[in-house]
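Appendix B: a complete holo record

For completeness, this appendix reproduces one full record from the ligand-bound portion of the collection. The bound molecule is zinc ion. The inputs are the chain sequence and the ligand SMILES; the output is the full three-dimensional arrangement of the complex, encoded as structure tokens. No fields have been trimmed.
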Amino acid sequence: MLEDLRQQVLDVSMQLQGAGLARGTSGNVSARDPESGMIAITPSGVPYHSLHISDIVVISPEGELVDGRYRPSSETPMHTAVYRARQDVNGIVHTHSLYATVFSVLNKELPVVTVPMAAFGPVSVVPFRLPGSRELADEVVRYLGSTGKSVLLQNHGALCVGRTLGEALECAIYTEEGAQVSYLALVAQGLTPIPDKYVAIMKKAAESGKAL
Ligand SMILES: [Zn+2]
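The structure of the chain with zinc ion bound, as generated:
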């Protein structure tokens, strides 16, 4: 069932691991089929390196298991809540990537410091709630709002959404890169965000699909 969608989730999971954004079983990936509303999501507790396409689970919009031999990710409530709140979102990537997590521990909003970040920044921090809880799902929805693409989860990691799973992956990569650049700039001397007027111009360009 939904083989293409499962394959996308598997491919992005592998790319996350390859890019060093996911280790062990941390983080999770999902994609929604816009036609049926069904969601393909990584299983709970299966390490990335041993993931196979048949391990990717299919769930209903309410998070009930439809097809698969494993339990869906423990963060399923966060994924389904975002899909219910945002019809424009068809892909979600949640990571515990190192520098994004550092900023989430600093409880510090990530300013727009790199050109790709203009498409989704600044990135605010969702207050700590128990992983996998309904409360965390509600806060993530609230902080993403109607157009947000990237948030940090306090003392936990990052969550990125996109119209496609590819977009969500790109957002996760650039969120981590932005956090890394910010951290190193702060440690080296100080951090200069891109001026707001240029962020606004670049954000518009990114929304209309122009490459930056
Ligand atoms: Zn997590």
